[in-house]
Amino acid sequence: MTDYSNIMGIPVPKLTMPETVARIQGVLAERKRKLFHVVTLNPEIAMSCQQDAELRGIVDGADLLTADGIGIVLVSRMRRNPLPERVTGCDLLFELLEAGNRSGWSFYLLGADEATNRRAADLIRQRYPGVSVVGRQHGYFDPSEDERVAADIAAKRPDVLVVALGAPKAERWIHARKDRLQARVAVGVGGSLDIVAGTVKRAPAVWQRLHAEWLFRLLNQPSRWRRQLILPRFALKAILYKERAPARQS
Prior knowledge:
Blueprint: E1 4-7, E2 10-13, H1 17-29, E3 36-41, H2 43-48, H3 53-61, E4 64-67, H4 70-78, H5 89-103, E5 106-111, H6 114-127, E6 132-137, H7 146-156, E7 160-164, H8 169-177, E8 185-188, H9 192-197, H10 205-209, H11 213-220, H12 225-228, H13 230-240
Parallel strand pairs: 3-4, 3-8, 5-6, 5-7, 7-8
Antiparallel strand pairs: 1-2
Helix pairs in contact: 1-5, 4-13
């Protein structure tokens, strides 16, 4: 039975990366066509869920949540109900590619610009020869093309649909079309295709071990500073968050 840590009212399962990958492997082994939606929960999504009922419904309805970032993990520790480790969208993508390379999974890549998307697909084919990239689509398509893109994914029937449209756009896009995508697992991975393609540099291992990947990104992409302002706000609100008492029955 899975244990959970409460992050601003959102129950996040206490799973390590190997346990998360194993759960997804189990889903794929069942060969069911019902889409399994994985949401990589970051502070931005958790904060938005407090005012956005539609997004909260999407998160509550997801098949699996992961702790995307050290901020989520640190808050769980401060609230004395610790998550074991972070399971970021980027790390999860690489782990799924490794597992897919061994098991012959098929992937569809949705997101990033055309050059980045194409390069990511090419590099995946080179580095993971056991993986099939059955389709791809850059993320700068017009909303009027949503159904065309969804139909292309459905026609390709990938084992894993990788959606790099940014959060929470990816989560909304998957949820709105989950009954017709014909993918078996769908996961939002933020800007991870940029890292796969090498257009954005991943923080060195030492920065990752120090949980300072966010600082590395900020130093290399100063334009992110406005977005990073959410982190201290999230930490304060999440630590002080109080569960709402259930409504009394009349």
